[in-house]
Amino acid sequence: MVRIVRGAVIPLVDTVTISLALFLAFLMTQAWNEDGLLESLLGPAMGVVDERLLFLGLMTVPVWLIVFTSFGVYRREVLRLSVSTFDELPQTIGALAVGAWLSVSILLLTAADDISFKSIWVFVAFAWMLLIFLLPLARAVVRIGLSFYNPFQTYALVVGAGEVGRSLIGRLNRHKEYGLKVVGFLDSGLADEDEAEVQLLGRPSDLRDIIDQYGISRVLIAFSQTTYDRILEVIHECQEMKVAVSVVPRFFEALSARVEMEDVEGLTLVSLPRYARHGWLMRTAKRMLDLFIATLAAVLLSPVLLLVAILIKLDSPGPVFFKQERMGKNHRRFMMYKFRSMRADAEEMKEKLEQHSDASGPIFKMKEDPRITRVGKVIRRLSIDELPQLINVFRGEMSLVGPRPLPVEEAEECTGTADMRHKVQPGITGLWQILGRSDIPYEEMVQLDYIYVTNWTLRWDLKIILRTVLAIVRKRGAY
């Protein structure tokens, strides 16, 4: 029931948005017609533009919704854990084009003789242009709102109590927008109670009883110790009970959303994309995007930068900027700039605090770091301390988006797959920042870096930049 209600939210939002766009389009068409603008642009015989046109336009709202349904937009709202407004934008624009064409056709068939083709065409064209902007905006606002407070919480069960299962639960717990509350594990072996965030509820043979007992709506399968045949039975049982199933695939570390699903005589193949192209053309496009956005940000945020510099100077003795040698593309070292958020002797104190690090791997992080100043706590929570890295962007040492540049001593410990991060320019923001920042363990950070390096696209950079704003607002993992 919860899934059905959740799946009705976006169609309801679309209904309101389409109606609003049609109303605004009618007002624009009527005003332009009365002012003579349409006649000067399109010639005479514009015909009558009155409330009948608006009424007929509103009658086409179900047509737009049917088009979106046929494009599979609403089906994903129920089946998928998360839907990206940015990713569905091309599909949305295509559906709007079809909806506009059908609306014009219907209005031509149903409108009175004194409502001309030109007025119908202008009315629908205005609505279409408004919807290209308003529809994604409305969906994004609703989805972002649900990411902060999601009343459609459903109960989930993880089959597989090993490392991958625990990692999956950690990710779900960091991202409440998925609307899943994991009640426990199922597995044939024993889970490590010290590391597991939820309890082992039983074996896969107990599936039906546990689904009924906890009201499970989704089962996630994550490398269980259970035999292959038994896992297939679990999947079939879930489908019989109308419980959604999600499976963590083998080699998930190398997969991204860009994979292609293929059918070979009934056998499903997952085809990986080629490594991201980092040729001179794409590098130039990325560099142009960096310079454009960095220049815009520097101009707009200059008052903030000046204010923060003054506050840092007044709050504690020491320089305004913190400079540290970091490792960049092709293992080249460079001096990275940040606003100083710690005491001037922070580096000298680090050795004494290393045993208290909250991060795994070679990275040092502390949630309650005693070196952080009063102003530092604020600017770190808002990620303002990162803004001076725009200097590094202008100098070509960093990009806006990419793996975070690590201090040299930490970077030198990144070997094997982890060293892939040094094949591209480091960035101010990236997958690590938008998905949890310091809350993400080292092993997961390595995986995210690998996925970014091997699947990079300019469109993905734009998406990460947009999601960075939301990550800053959420303050998730910022310390």
Structural class: alpha/beta
Uncertain segments: none
The end-to-end span amounts to: 39 Å
The domain count comes to 3
Number of strands: 11
* Average pLDDT score: 84
The helix count comes to 19
| Sheet with the most strands, sense and barrel status | 5 strands, parallel
**Helix/strand order, N-terminal first:** HHHHHHHEHEEHEHEEEHHEEHHHEHEHHH
Global Rg: 27 Å
Global shape: globular
Instruction: Tell me the β content.
Output: 5-15%
Give the helix level as a range of percent: 40-55%
Strand order of the largest sheet: 3-2-1-4-5
**Quaternary assembly:** single chain
How would you describe this structure to a colleague?
The protein has 479 residues and is an alpha/beta fold. The chain folds into three domains: 2-148, no CATH class; 154-248, Rossmann fold (3-Layer(aba) Sandwich); 280-474, no CATH class. Helix content is 52%, strand content 12%. The chain contains 19 helices and eleven strands. The protein has helices spanning 2-35, 37-42, 51-58, 61-70, 73-79, 89-110, 117-148, 163-174, 207-214, 228-240, 280-300, 302-315, 346-353, 374-381, 390-394, 408-411, 431-434, 442-455, 458-474, and strands at residues 154-159, 180-186, 200-202, 216-221, 244-247, 260-264, 267-271, 321-327, 333-339, 399-401, 427-429. The strands form four sheets. It has a five-stranded parallel β-sheet, with helices on both faces. α1 (2-35) crosses α4 (61-70). The protein is globular and about 85 Å long. It starts with a helix and ends in a 5-residue tail after the last helix. The model has no long low-confidence stretch (mean pLDDT 84).
